[in-house]
Each structure stands twice: as C-alpha cells, then as structure tokens.
Amino acid sequence: MISPARELLNFIDTSPSPWHAVASAEARLLAQGFTRLAEDERWQLEAGGRYYTVRGGASLIAFVQGSQPISQAGFRMVGAHTDSPGLRLKPKAALTGNGLARLAVEVYGGPILATFTDRDLSLAGRVILRGAAGQKTRLIRFERSLLRLPNLAIHMNREVNEQGLKLNKQTELPLILGMLGEGLDAQANLHKLLADAAQAEAADLLSFEMAVYDVQKGCLWGANEEFIADSQLDNLASCHAALSALIAMEQPAACCVAAFFDHEEVGSESATGAGGSFITDVLNRICFHAKLDEEDRRCAMARSFFISADMAHAYQPNFPGAYEPEHKVMINGGPVIKSNVNQRYTTNAETAARFMGLCEKAGVPYQEYAHRTDLGCGSTIGPMLAAQLGVAGVDVGSPLWAMHSARESAGVLDHGYMIAALVAAFDS
C-alpha cells in the first residue's frame, strides 16, 4: 500500500502548475467514478451522485451528494488553492544579448526568490492554439532542466552571507535559456519550443501561461524518513488531503464539497479565485436541483461548516525569535488550528472547538497557532469565503518549514493526520 505521503509526492510531481494540478485531480476523480459537469450546460444531478466542475482550467470544485436533505444537513466544505508563489513568463519573454537567450519573468505572489537560484528549473503551463474549429488549449511541461538562474560568485558579492541575497526583480531575475547563434530570433525560438511541446505548429501558437518550476522530484528525508521535501507543498498538500478525504466518502449525510481555487497567492480576486462567484454558483445550482426555495437555502447555509485548509508555520528551532513563545507548532504534531483576532483567519472559539472535536473523533492530535504580534500575519481564503457564504468556518493546515521556498518541508505523519481529520469533517 502506498502511504499518503508518497501519494502526495506523486500528486505534486504530476502538478508543476495550477493547470496541471487540476488535471491531476480530475484524473483521480474520474478514476473514482465522478462525473464532470460543464458550467455552460444544464446539470442533471442524481441522489448520491459524485460530480465535479472546472473553471478556467486552474480551479475545480467536486462534490458528493448527501443522503439527508440539504436544508437539514447543510454542506460540509473544504477549500484550498492550486497556485503557489514563484515565477511566470511574460508574454514577450525572450531577451537577447551577450550571445545568450534569456527569459523575462514576473514574480507571482511572494516567493523566497533566493531559493530559485542555482536550481534545475523548467517550464509548465498551458498554450492556446489556433485550430480549424476554434481555439484549443493544451497543457505542456518540459521534464528536463531547461532554465537556470545562476548566482553571483561570492567574490563579487562579499556581503551575501551577512546581508542575504537580494535580487532586483526586473534586472536580475531573467532566466538563462541557452546560447543564441547569429541571426536567430529568440522570440521565434521560444514560440517554436512551446509549440513543439504541444505538438503543434509555431504559427498556430496564440498565447501561453507558463510557470517556472523545479524539476527535482519530491522525496522523503530524515533519519527515519519522517519528513517530506517538495515544491508547492503550500498548498497542493491541502488539495491532496481534501481530495483524498472526499473520494473516501461513500454515503455521507451532508453534501460534501471540496473546492480548489487559483490565485490565492495574489489575492483571490478573479473569476477563478475564491473571491469570485465559483463556489456560490456551484452551491446555488446544487440547491436548485434539490428544489430548495430561498428560505431552505438559507437554512442549509446556516447548518453548514467550512474548513479553509492551508499550510501552517512549523517551529524552526534555529530561529526561535520568529515565533509566538506559547504557539510553537511542531512537525508531525498534527493539524494546526490557526487564529487571528484581526480576522486574517476565519477561526473563532466555536469553530476551533468543533475542529478539535473532529480531530478527537478521527483519533489524531491537533495544535493551535497564533502569529507573533509584531509580525504581519498572512491570510487565506477562509475569511473571504466565510463572509461571502455566511457560513461558520475554521482555518487549519499542516505544519510546514520554509513556506514559499522553491523547496518546502513538511511531516509524513501530518499528511495522514490531515486526511483523517477531513474525513471526519465530511462525515460529521
């Protein structure tokens, strides 16, 4: 039997971009008997049915119909996000000079830029092609090392170990692609490279969205392989945990929903982000097919529960001053309940206690986290969805080291703990 941690590594390794993450989730859902619904077509929902729908290629919502009326049982929802901080290609990315072809990038979200230097980088994403019947989309990825961001030698940056590596986002982030021969058009070469990967003609390439990713596969590490190392653990680990828990549901009482959104790392305000209409559109269509009137729908939402699943900051003993002294979250210590009085997280006393009860039901430990008061606190999709839906919610996550690094670390036990807790949540 493959452990949940190894399944997670496989999931991330097949998901080098948000579009690939959705494709990986979709493949698993189809293998488990889920039916795809198109947003631009009328839905036909059956009792006990298992369904999913995709918006924009990078956001997906899956659900399992409950055995009890929705107006009585409500929804059990888990939300996570498919995007991770990093680098993305600009539309006209090719740069030339000094005999080299380089690619211009934009910074997506808040990555630790220094961690992208001296790594085996490549490209993954989607291309839009011209076709006889209209535009078509194809996912592509280069599995080999294609790009690099070489560091400056210490002889030319003597203070790097004292001052840290600081990179100018405009001038010092372009990635080296290769040598450029005389008379070659770097932009045309890039288009041909992308078109060849899509098995298409360069003339048919209309546009693209490309994420830069590290080709090194994930692994287990530590004296007893008790840790996980991989890219995008924030937040594909939460996506995988929610997906695994939803698939495990056979005949739940409440309608169970797993929602995976793009653009969390840049604010969620998009058609495919949690700040858009995707989740309300899906829930309203489910309520419509259940023949709920407005009064019943409001009753259903009042009886619902939402879990925002996003990774949590694990205590790193080399940097004790970065943490609130009584809120040291430990790797392999169980799911973390995240609280913030300024509503950066949606947790309150009641919802925290409810999640504690779910962990106890699942037989897994849990931890509580609050950020240092003198440090800015990050946020999640939790507060915006709780406000948008009017649903009781809690923010939780598995402990993580080096959040937003090109290579993050988490705990093997924690991933299994989170799946078990989310199974208990869906089954509550």
N/C terminus separation: 27 Å
Structural domains: how many: 2
Mean pLDDT over the full residue set: 95
Instruction: Kindly estimate the percentage of residues that lie in beta strands according to DSSP.
Output: 25-35%
Instruction: Assign the CATH topology of the largest domain.
Output: Aminopeptidase
* Largest beta-sheet characterization: 9 strands, mixed
CATH class of the largest domain: Alpha Beta
Helix content: 25-40%
Unreliable residue stretches: none
Radius of gyration: 22 Å
DSSP strand tally:
20
Describe the overall structure.
- With 428 residues, this protein is α/β, with parallel strands linked by helices.
- It has two domains: 4-84 and 231-426, Aminopeptidase, CATH 3.40.630.10; 86-214, Aminopeptidase i, Domain 2.
- Helices cover 27% and strands 26% of the residues.
- The strands form four sheets. It has a nine-stranded mixed beta sheet with strand order 1-2-3-13-4-14-18-16-17, with helices on both faces. A five-stranded mixed beta sheet has the order 11-12-20-19-15. Strands 5-6-9 form a three-stranded antiparallel beta sheet.
- β19 and β20 (408-411) form a beta hairpin.
- The chain is globular and about 70 Å long.
- The chain starts with a helix and ends with a helix.
- The mean pLDDT is 95.
